[in-house]
Design brief:
- With 284 residues, the chain is of the alpha+beta class.
- It has one domain: Creatine Amidinohydrolase.
- Helix content is 29%, strand content 23%.
- Helix 4 runs antiparallel to helix 5.
- The longest helix is centred in the first third of the chain and has 24 residues.
- The termini are far apart.
- The relative contact order is 0.17.
- It binds 2-amino-4-trifluoromethylsulfanyl-butyric acid and cobalt (II) ion (2 copies).
- One cobalt (II) ion binds next to strand 4 and strand 5.
- One cobalt (II) ion binds next to loops.
């Protein structure tokens, strides 16, 4: 008989929970490795990182205004983090030079804070921060509208938020992670928007980016089963026009992602732990 090499190898005597996963794997499902299923202690650590991360974004929400630079946003985030004994995960990650991503209008994500980027009335900006606290990671982003913007940009921000909510509803315990994008994509398309395919959500918690990849578009192929105890982000990037994106040639660091048609883009992100009842948000 052929030997089956299982990916899921419980430590010690398998529990009912382990047996359920091993059975799914034998039936051909893609299952997480044990390290992707967090222990209660790890989940508490990630939850504490999430509290600091929410404090960072709440502080930005109070202080953001027209006329400020994105460099000042970086300082606000860095200081809040330091005051709470935490570290900004972005700083130095793959050569990223700052502590937070600030992505204005046509910048899809990974915008680098700069002294020359002054926020102006009508801008829409995504502020994406990841906290490391006691070795645990929590990752979230929000959109901010500077003053009043146009109805079409306002609608993009609102529908993108709804895309995150549609994704949350689709994320059920023991579902296929690709069910998330299968729900988000048609919702975005109903509104005439493009769904970014080149960047995805991800497992998170003990590292910045872990498996699984969380697609926001409709993958045909099956993805990993979302088992209770897994921690991951959902972070749809939704474009007013084309779904295609590029790295901005003007960015010497090679990080900033912009839309192919230079139309605006929006994104909302939370970190979740999957429970037996569905995803619980750890970044509120
Ligand atoms: N926070 C982003 C995410 O949601 C990743 C930023 S990586 C950085 O996954 F290096 F640009 F900071
Ligand atoms: Co993320
Ligand atoms: Co993020």
């Amino acid at each position: 008989m052929a030997k089956h090499r299982l990916h899921y190898i419980p430590k010690g005597k398998p529990t009912e929970f382990d047996l359920r996963i091993m059975d799914l794997e034998r039936k051909g499902a893609i299952v997480p490795s044990c390290d992707l299923i967090k222990t209660p202690e790890q989940i508490e650590g990630i939850r504490r990182a999430g509290v600091v991360n929410t404090g960072v974004l709440d502080t930005v929400a109070r202080e953001i205004h027209a006329g400020m630079t994105t460099l000042e946003i970086d300082r606000i985030c860095r200081e809040y983090c330091a005051d709470h004994g935490a570290i900004p995960a972005c700083l130095g990650y793959g050569g990223f030079p700052m502590s937070v991503c600030t992505s204005i209008n046509e910048v899809v994500c990974h915008g680098i804070p700069k002294k020359k980027d002054v926020l102006k009335e009508g801008d829409i900006i995504n502020v994406d921060f990841t906290t490391i606290l006691d070795g645990y990671f929590a990752d979230a982003s929000r959109m901010f509208i500077i003053g009043e913007t146009t109805p079409d940009k306002e609608r993009l921000v609102k529908v993108t938020r709804e895309c995150l909510e549609v994704g949350i509803k689709a994320a059920r315990p023991w579902c296929d992670v690709n069910d998330i994008g299968r729900a988000i994509e048609p919702y975005a398309h109903q509104h005439g928007y493009g769904v970014v395919r080149d960047l995805t959500g991800h497992g998170v918690g003990c590292k910045f980016h872990e498996d699984p990849e969380v697609c926001h578009f409709a993958q045909r192929k099956k993805g990993m089963i979302l088992v209770p105890g897994m921690v991951f982000t959902i972070e749809p990037m939704i474009n007013m026009g084309t779904w295609k994106v590029f790295i901005d040639a003007d960015d010497p660091f090679g990080w900033e992602v912009i839309t192919g048609d230079l139309k605006p883009s929006a994104q909302w992100e939370h970190t979740f732990v999957m429970t037996e009842d569905g995803p619980e948000i750890l970044t509120y």
